[in-house]
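Lab notebook, bench 4. The sequencing result for the construct came back, and we need a structural model before the next group meeting so we can plan mutations. Quick request posted to the team channel:

Model the 3D structure of this chain.
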Amino acid sequence: MGARRGYSAVTRRAALGGLAAGFAGAWGCNPHRDQIRPDNLLGRIGRPQGEVIEPKKCALRLAIVGRPFRDPVVNEVVWRAADEQAISHEERRALQANGIRLGRISGDLPRELEALFSAPPPNKVEPVTFLVPEGTQELFALSDEVEQASLLLNLDGRITGKDYDNARGHYRVTPEHHGANAVALRLTPEVHHGPIRRSYEPLQQATPYAPQEFKIADGQKQDAVRDLTARLVIEPGQVVVLGCLPEQERSLGAFLFTASGEHPDQRTQRVALVWAERNQLGVIEEKKTPAKSAPADGPADAGPTPADDEIAR
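Done. Here's the predicted structure in token form:
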């Protein structure tokens, strides 16, 4: 029993000695010891050996220009500079049937419109910028809340009337990167109405097995007119223009872009300008799996190998 204990003690001392020698070799005698030091490891992590790709984002800038009803700046001048054929014929016809005009201006804004951005208060126009991830919907409020609104909607050639209480007009804009420099926008008009109610909306889960979380949302009922969704692409230096045909009373366009005052001569008309920029330029190409080449010693158009029973025939 005593000999066994002595053998065990010698074995432990030998093992500890070998372990110490190993550490000494790694830290003191190893010619590559700098590569395993923690401080050098942190230095290598910080080196630009790879490129960090930032998530795709878009900056949306909104400016609402309000003028007296049928003022030439918002009713004529801006539309002479706008290309209303930037959207498809079907989308343009559906919008105009509901009193909405949509176009795209390339280059500088008209001089009369540009002057409003440098005008003194209260006529000065102040744009607002929203930074959103690509594909995320941003809601733009275009009109003040009215106690009652009676609208006529012309969808697919059918005219229907709808009454709203405590109604307010919005446009929902969804941006996406397009091509090398452009941004594609999807624009949908909405009417929010009724009393404010509390609801619980599910949040996007980080992992499939994460517990479902919810957020509290207080808002009105939302009626999105998806039949009037328009899509267009804007390049740097271009701006989207949204407005109305003021002669179409009770239309959705008149509701979104006109407002009545206490007196008939205080009625106003608006246009909305939307710029879009992106944080990444160029096209990120996806990796493609190379096609398998034919064997060098065989013909390129060789057919399938026949089965044994076919050879026997």
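The two ends are 83 Å apart (CA to CA).
Will bring this to the meeting.
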